[in-house]
Amino acid sequence: MIRTFKSVSTSQIRKIVMPDFSWQHNYYEHIIRQEKDLDHIRLYIATNPAGWAQDTLNIKEGIQP
Q: Domain range for residue 45?
């Protein structure tokens, strides 16, 4: 299921938006089994952009959000 989603998405993104698009390597995925885990992930997603500028990788590489 994920493979199909990524394949279709990659084709469309490369065609419409970004010809050299590729997925991030070594991403972490898991099944969310409890509401508290979902709440933790939601909080992470909501607050993650605020820390972008302080991320040493982004500073080193000059990557902008």
A: 32-65
